[in-house]
């Protein structure tokens, strides 16, 4: 297939969007990848390798491999932290967007995590899961106290590499595309209304939480105290085949 002189906008940078980007760029298209969050890779980039003595083909490495291929391809332009405002047609489609500054210099940040440890507002600083691509951390403007009368600048002040600026800018722009590929992903099920204590007990976690812990520490550590878990119980299919949750 030859898509030279074609421009395709891919919306969503999870494994589906990255696979589309890889294929389209390989076929010669110019590709613009738009992602609303500060980080690329979606849920799949959080998965941890399951290999023991040898590869067990779990697929956890696919997202990072596709992500590296996409970010290094000369035909691909990437727009993280970008919201689409309007789309007009018929083709060529006209796409207006707005990109928000991550407030963290990706070239300076080395992912030391001091800002996350010292931030007084839980969740105000987000950690990326693909450290070889883009920023290690990003700041949520809606939670950061700096944007509440400049009440706190601790993360900026303690960053040993001067990577944090706390200047939030938004840039508007537009694109024209011959086609739009939607890969907007999914939202993981939230089991907090189930009788297992998720959200109330620190050591009750979801499988995706477990993937993140394993990716970060290589061993399963208890969120409550950071000690290695000795006994682990799995409750399967929470929320599935549940008519009350809309999953019959």
Domain tally: 3
How is the largest sheet built, in terms of strand order?
3-2-1-9
Gross geometry: globular
User: pLDDT below 50 for ≥5 consecutive residues: which ranges?
Assistant: none
- The CATH C-level name of the largest domain is Alpha Beta
- Any guess at the CATH architecture of the largest domain? 3-Layer(bba) Sandwich
Largest sheet report: 4 strands, parallel
Number of helices, counting only DSSP H or I runs of 4 residues or more? 5
Number of strands: 9
Descriptive tags:
248 residues, alpha/beta, FAD/NAD(P)-binding domain, Alpha-Beta Plaits, 3 domains, four-stranded parallel β-sheet, three-stranded antiparallel β-sheet, 5 helices, 19% strand, globular
Question: Describe it for me?
Answer:
With 248 residues, the chain is α/β, with parallel strands linked by helices. The protein folds into 3 domains: 7-95 and 174-182, FAD/NAD(P)-binding domain (3-Layer(bba) Sandwich); 102-168, Alpha-Beta Plaits; 189-248, no CATH class. The protein has helices at 15-26, 62-72, 114-118, 154-158, 207-217; strands at residues 7-11, 30-34, 76-79, 82-88, 93-100, 125-127, 137-139, 170-177, 179-182. It has a 4-stranded parallel sheet with strand order 3-2-1-9, with helices on one face. It has a 3-stranded antiparallel sheet with strand order 4-5-8, with no helix packed on it. Strand 2, helix 2 (62-72) and strand 3 form a beta-alpha-beta unit. The protein is globular and about 55 Å long.
């Amino acid at each position: 297939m030859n898509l030279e002189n074609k421009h395709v906008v891919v919306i969503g940078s999870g494994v589906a969007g990255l696979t589309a980007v890889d294929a389209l760029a390989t076929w010669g298209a110019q590709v613009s990848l738009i992602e609303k969050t500060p980080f690329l890779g979606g849920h799949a980039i959080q998965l941890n390798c399951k290999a023991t003595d040898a590869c067990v083909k779990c697929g956890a490495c696919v997202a990072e491999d596709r992500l590296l291929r996409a970010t290094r391809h000369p035909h691909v332009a990437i727009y993280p932290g970008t919201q689409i405002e309007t789309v007009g047609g018929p083709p060529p489609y006209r796409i207006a967007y707005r990109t928000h500054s991550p407030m963290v210099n990706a070239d300076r940040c080395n992912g030391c995590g001091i800002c996350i440890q010292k931030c007084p507002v839980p969740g105000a600083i987000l950690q990326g899961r693909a450290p070889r691509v883009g920023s290690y951390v990003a700041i949520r403007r809606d939670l950061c106290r700096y944007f509440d009368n400049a009440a706190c600048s601790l993360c900026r002040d303690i960053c040993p590499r001067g990577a944090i600026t706390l200047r939030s800018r938004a840039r508007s722009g537009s694109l024209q595309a011959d086609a739009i590929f939607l890969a907007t992903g999914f939202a993981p099920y939230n089991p907090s209304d189930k009788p297992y204590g998720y959200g109330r007990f620190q050591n009750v976690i979801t499988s995706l939480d477990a993937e993140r812990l394993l990716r970060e520490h290589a061993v399963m550590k208890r969120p409550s105290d950071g000690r290695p878990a000795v006994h682990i119980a799995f409750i399967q299919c929470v929320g599935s085949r549940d008519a009350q949750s809309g999953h019959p």
